[in-house]
Specification:
Layout lengths: L12 H10 L6 H11 L5 H15 L8 H9 L2 H15 L1 H11 L7 E2 L1 H12 L4 H13 L3 E4 L2 E4 L6 H12 L5 E3 H6 L2 H5 L4 H13 L3 E7 L2 E6 L3 H7 L4
Antiparallel strand pairs: 1-3, 2-3, 4-6, 5-6
C-alpha cells in the first residue's frame, strides 16, 4: 500500500473522545495540547506525546480548536453523534484500517466470521512481513470503531447503528457548506459514508429519503437519469439549530 507507514499506531479511542470534549474549555490549540499531554493517564511521557500528536492529527488537523468533532460536541452534546463523526476522522487518516474495512467487512453480511488468517495475511501483504503489534492494533482498532465484535474466541463483522445525523452533517461539511445541488454519485465516490458505518448505497438512499420527509434536505430526486440531493440548510445552520435525524 503506497505511503503506508512502517507500523500501525496505537488507538487511544476513549482518550480521544474525552479530549474532544475537553477541548471546548480552551482558547488556543497550544494550550489544549499542553493540557492533553499533562493529563493523559499513561505513565510514559513518550506515550503521552505520541497520543497528543495522534489526537491532533485525527481530530484537529488544522491545529484549530474549531474542528468538526469539537463543533459537533458543542452543538449536540450527544456522544453517539460525536463518535460517528470521529470514526470518519480516524479512517480518513488511517488507510490501512480503512483498507481492511473496504476489502473484508463491507462485502460481508453482518455476523460473518472472520478467520484469524484474514488479519494476519492482510498485515503481511500491507507491510511485506508479519508484524504482530500491527496485527493486534488492527483488530483492536476495528473493534473499538464498531466494525467487528468478539464472540468466544472468534471475530465477527457487526452492524454499526445507522449514523444518519453524522452522515448528514458530514455531507454538508464536504459537499454543501451552503445550500446547493449535489449529485449522489459524487457523495458515494467519497468513502465517508461507509467510514461512518453504512454498508450499502441503498442505506444512504434510505437516509436521504428520510431526511426529505423530515424537512432536513429540500429534495432527493432523479433528474436526467442522475440522482441529485438539494440541501436546505447550511452546515452552520445544521450545527446552530442542532438538526438531527
Amino acid at each position: 500500500m503506497p505511503g503506508t507507514v512502517s507500523t500501525l499506531q496505537d488507538f487511544p479511542w476513549e482518550e480521544s473522545v474525552q479530549a474532544v470534549k475537553e477541548s471546548l474549555r480552551f482558547d488556543s490549540y497550544p494550550a489544549f495540547a499542553e493540557y492533553l499531554f499533562n493529563s493523559l493517564p499513561q505513565n510514559s511521557p513518550k506515550t503521552r506525546r505520541r497520543y497528543t500528536s495522534l489526537i491532533g492529527r485525527w481530530f484537529f488537523p488544522d491545529r484549530q480548536l474549531s474542528s468538526l468533532p469539537a463543533r459537533v460536541w458543542a452543538s449536540y452534546a450527544d456522544e453517539t453523534i460525536l463518535r460517528d463523526v470521529m470514526r470518519v476522522c480516524v479512517l480518513s487518516q488511517e488507510p490501512v484500517i480503512a483498507g481492511f474495512i473496504q476489502r473484508f467487512i463491507l462485502p460481508a453480511p453482518p455476523g460473518t466470521w472472520l478467520q484469524t488468517d484474514t488479519f494476519r495475511t492482510y498485515i503481511e501483504q500491507t507491510y511485506g512481513e508479519f508484524k504482530y503489534q500491527s496485527y493486534e492494533r488492527l483488530i483492536r482498532t476495528l473493534c473499538k470503531l464498531g466494525f467487528i465484535a468478539k464472540v468466544g474466541q472468534s471475530w465477527f463483522t457487526r452492524t454499526i447503528p445507522r449514523p444518519a445525523t453524522a452522515f448528514l452533517i458530514l455531507l454538508h461539511q464536504r459537499f454543501a457548506p451552503t445550500p446547493r445541488i449535489v449529485p449522489l454519485d459524487q457523495i458515494l465516490a467519497d468513502p465517508f459514508w461507509w467510514q461512518a458505518g453504512y454498508r450499502t448505497p441503498d442505506e444512504v438512499r434510505e437516509t436521504l429519503h428520510d431526511a426529505v420527509a423530515a424537512g432536513l434536505i429540500a429534495r432527493f430526486v432523479v433528474v436526467d437519469h442522475l440522482e441529485q440531493v438539494t440541501t436546505r440548510y447550511s452546515l452552520d445552520e445544521w450545527l446552530t439549530m442542532k438538526l438531527q435525524l
